[in-house]
Amino acid sequence: MDATTTVLRALADPTRRAVLEQLALGEATVSSLTARFPVTQPAISQHLRVLRQAGLVVDRHDGRFVYYRARPEGLGPMIAWVEQYEAFWRGRLAALATLLDEGMAHGEVGGDSE
To answer: E strands within the chain?
Structure first.
């Protein structure tokens, strides 16, 4: 599976997205995340494993505690994928704007169609 697919699959789950958003605010342990979500500790651990495998979070060991934090650069493959379509949409939206401008100039856009 390529990196883009891995990231998209990891972010497809709403709980994982929420966990990632929480970690973007700062480091957290599994137990502190469990307290913030209506899921079990094993479920949080599983979500963190998927996020870590996708490169979206990293962990730091400090004694017997493991702290997780977001890794924003992990979103790179998804951002690159979306950017491929930027030129396409920019061109389409420019064409739409031109069409609407021409229609407004001729009184064909807006107003009531009775």
So the answer is: 57-62, 65-70
Q: For the domain made up of 3-75, give the CATH fold.
A: Arc Repressor Mutant, subunit A (1.10.10)
Domain residue spans of the chain? 3-75
Instruction: State the helix-helix crossing angle for 3-11 and 14-24, rounded to 10 degrees.
Output: 100
pTM: 0.75
Query: Who wins on pLDDT, 28 or 80?
Result: 28
**From CA 2, how far away is CA 109, in angstroms rounded?**
45
List CB contacts of 110: < 8 A, sequence separation 6 or more: 104
Residues 81, 38: Cα–Cα separation, whole Å:
32
